[in-house]
Specification:
alpha+beta, 4 domains, 6 strands, 36% helix, nuclease, zinc ion binding, ubl conjugation pathway, DNA recombination
Length: 310
């Protein structure tokens, strides 16, 4: 602070200002100038205060920001404060922190999307407990939640299950329900059970075929649009599309062994699934292929229809 006394004009640190003023005899009565904290505790730094004390100190500024936001920014106080914070960071060359804040404001954040975490868990063959261990370790070591917790992955997984996306067949298919909400249904319903067909007791959970197919195509939406773009086709073409599907039934081996608990029991798991092999679209007089499965024998592109425990 610059000293207000004539012919002094010295610049003094804020903390030593009161001491400096008291050295001027002519200023003994001119207390209007002195910013001396008269007794009591010294003024604490804003960030070290409790939330209530911060609110109290910033009350006047908050009122001004609110008035400005309502007048200029349609009442968006958050945007005004965030922008002020960004400008303050950039003014001090804290660009890394400013970039991170900007990413969070735009919903990108520094963490990975739950669907990306799910893909990582599946592609690296991690069990839920192994993934959870990794999630906790990364969070503890880095202090940031880069991976998402398991419950977020389960929510993301629901979007991949048949019955999640509403759909409508045009024209409607014969003998197919128009209801799109499909949970897991009893896989053996509607099949005449006989000793010859099922020599062992089976528990089966299956999805409705049409709902599973819609879900698989919805999951591949980006690849389909990318394929159309490569073929210079408009993404609003309404087809007809030809979808070639390979059906498969895969024995999943001894289930008890995989879990590694107790003695081996003769339980076998069987999975009925299908793979979308290729998709083509009729355009003019020719058919253009817009999608082809590169690894048709990989279990990662298998869409389950029925899981059976025998």
């Amino acid at each position: 602070i610059r000293c207000p006394v004539k012919e002094c004009d010295e610049e003094i640190l804020h903390g030593k200002y009161g001491q400096h003023l008291s050295s001027h005899k002519e200023m003994k009565d001119g207390e209007v100038y002195s910013y001396i904290n008269k007794g009591g505790r010294p003024r604490q730094h804003l960030l070290s205060l409790t939330r209530r004390a911060q609110k109290h100190r910033l009350r006047e500024l908050k009122r001004q920001v609110k008035a400005f936001a309502e007048k200029e920014e349609g009442g968006d106080i958050k945007a005004v404060c965030m922008t002020l914070f960004l400008l303050a960071l950039r003014a001090k060359n804290e660009h890394k922190q400013a970039d991170e804040l900007e990413a969070i404001m735009q919903g990108k954040g520094s963490g990975l999307h739950p669907a990306v975490c799910l893909a990582i868990r599946i592609n690296t063959f991690l069990s839920c407990s192994q993934y959870h261990k990794m999630y906790r370790t990364v969070k503890a070591v880095s202090g940031r939640q880069i991976f998402q917790p398991l419950h977020a992955l389960r929510t993301a997984e629901k979007a991949l299950l048949p019955g999640y996306h509403p759909f409508e067949w045009k024209p409607p298919l014969k003998n197919v329900s128009t209801n799109t909400e499909v949970g897991i249904i009893d896989g053996l319903s509607g099949l005449p059970l006989s000793i010859d067909d099922y020599p062992v007791d089976t528990i089966a959970k299956r999805f409705r075929y049409d709902a599973a197919l819609v879900c698989a195509l919805k999951d591949m939406e980006e690849e389909i649009l990318e394929g159309m773009k490569l073929r210079n086709l408009d993404d609003y073409l309404n087809g007809p599309f030809t979808v070639v599907v390979k059906e498969s039934c895969d024995g999943m081996g001894d289930v008890s062994e995989k879990h590694g608990s107790g003695p081996a029991v003769p339980e076998k798991a069987v999975r009925f699934s299908f793979t979308v092999m290729n998709i083509s679209i009729a355009h003019g007089n020719e058919s253009k292929r817009i999608f082809e499965e590169v690894k048709p024998n990989s279990e990662l592109c298998c869409k389950p229809l029925c899981l059976m425990l025998a």
